[in-house]
Structure formats: C-alpha cells, structure tokens
TrEMBL record:
Belongs to the binding-protein-dependent transport system permease family. It is a multi-pass membrane protein. It holds the Pfam family BPD_transp_1. PANTHER family: ABC TRANSPORTER PERMEASE PROTEIN MJ0413-RELATED (PTHR30151:SF0), ALKANE SULFONATE ABC TRANSPORTER-RELATED, MEMBRANE SUBUNIT (PTHR30151). GO terms for biological process: transmembrane transport. Its main location: membrane. It comes from the Bacteria. Signal peptide: none annotated. This is ABC transporter permease subunit. It is found in: Cell membrane.
Length: 258
C-alpha cells in the first residue's frame, strides 16, 4: 500500500457537483424504469421514500448508533496505535523490521478471511471494532511513517544547531510536517472502516446493527430497504469524515498559530 499524500490532490478534483449527482440519479431512474422490476433494480424515488419511512423509527437510530460506535471505535484505535507505532518504527530500525511482516500480512489477507477468523475468537457484537481496526491500521501506519521520513532535514539540522528539546522538535517540526500525511490516511481510513465494518456485520449479524438490517433486507428481497440502508452507510461515512477532518484541521490551525 503506497502512501497517500495531500500534496498530490488536484485542485477541486475531489468535489462532488450537483449536476453530476442529478445525472447519475436520472440514469438510475431510467435503468429502473427500463427493467420494470423493482425487486431487481429499485428506483431512487422508492429508496428515498423507504428512507423517510425508516427515519422516524427508534430502531433506525439505535442501529446507526450501535454500528457507528463500534466502527469509529476501531478507526480511532487504529489511528492512535498506527501513529504511535509509525513513530517507533521511524526511530528504531529493529522496530520497523519487527512490524513489517505484521503490516504486510494485514494488507494482504482478504477482509472476508479476517471476519471468519475473528468470529472464532470474539463475539459478533464486537466484530466490527476489530475488522475496522485491521483495515485502517496499515493505512495510518504507512502514511505516518512516510510523513516522518519526509520531514525537512534542514529544519531538523536547524533544531540541532539551536539545541531544541525533543518535545519542541515534535511540536514545531514533526507534527506540522507529518499532519498532511496523517490526514490523508484518515480520510481514506474513514471510508475503509465503514465498508469493512458493515461487511463484518452482514456476516456476523449482531443484533440491532446496520449489517443485520442489510442481511434481513436481502433475505426478504426488500430491495428498497437494502438500498436505503446502503445510502445511510454512504451518508454516515461522508458525515463522519467531514466532522473528523474538520476537527483535525482545526487542531492543525491552532498548532500553526502557537
């Protein structure tokens, strides 16, 4: 897995345009009308209608809270541990060599294999925590490690000349230099954790989870509800990404002003 740097983003390249969204909704509606069988391809109108039927129910919100708490818990654990171990690996070659096989294995093993293996050891209720952690950890670790290694050498030499303390170097040099890499890793990781976490729930089927709702919708061929819950996952992923990155950007701005 290669490092993902914020510097490589093209200006405006990641923005979603309303006209593009409307275009694909029209394509979706047209395809649904052409097929004429909503059990095969439900229309976007039916999906939105079903979503508004689900929103007022307490079960809808309890499922979102259940899954979000576990999926985001796995993400935060991976972000914290990934950054700490990356710092350790950057400082110690032996630590990097020790961690390399584990990181490579996590990146190579399919998500489905991890889900089945983890289900042997832990209950399905906490499965999404573990799977989210495993999917996000290599991204954060790799990105943070590359960010540390690309820290401006001239700034470090200047810090040595002025005999800056290790804490001062961390606060004023390493964190500002590494933050774009860490942020980019978090942006990718937030999408991965929702995909992997809900996939784990579909297989483990813990009670009161989004995965359980997806599974039941598939079993009962309730295509509109299946699409509605899928839309919920997409919106939740986007919302939490925006919130987390906004908080991260706010902390970065405060660091720059200090």
């Amino acid at each position: 897995m290669t490092s993902i740097s914020a510097d490589k983003k093209k200006k405006g390249g990641g923005k979603i345009r309303l006209w593009a969204v409307l275009f694909w909704l029209l394509v979706w509606q047209g395809a649904s009308m052409a097929i004429g069988q909503e059990i095969l391809l439900v229309s976007p109108v039916s999906v939105i209608k079903k979503l508004f039927e689900l929103i007022p129910t307490g079960e809808f919100w309890s499922s979102i809270l259940f899954s979000a708490a576990r999926i985001l818990g796995g993400f935060l654990l991976a972000a914290g541990l990934g950054a700490l171990l990356a710092a350790l690996a950057a400082k110690s070659k032996r630590a990097e060599e020790l961690l390399a096989p584990a990181v490579l294995t996590i990146k190579a093993v399919p998500v489905a294999s991890f889900i089945i293996l983890v289900l042997i050891w832990i209950s399905s209720r906490n499965l999404s925590v573990c799977i989210s952690f495993l999917m996000v950890f290599p991204v954060i670790y790799t990105n943070t490690l590359n960010g540390i290694r690309r820290t401006d050498r001239e700034l470090l030499e200047m810090a040595g000349v002025f005999r800056m303390s290790s804490w001062a170097k961390l606060w004023y040099i390493y964190i500002p230099q590494v933050m774009p890499y860490f942020r980019a890793g978090c942006s990718v990781g937030l999408g991965l954790c929702w995909k992997a976490g809900t996939a784990a729930e579909v297989i483990g089927i813990p009670d009161h989870s989004i995965g359980e709702k997806l599974y039941n919708a598939k079993v009962y061929l309730n295509t509109s509800e299946l699409f509605a819950w899928t839309l919920v996952i997409v919106l939740a992923s986007l919302l939490f990404e925006k919130i987390f990155l906004a908080v991260l950007d706010g902390l970065t701005a405060k660091l720059e002003r200090m």
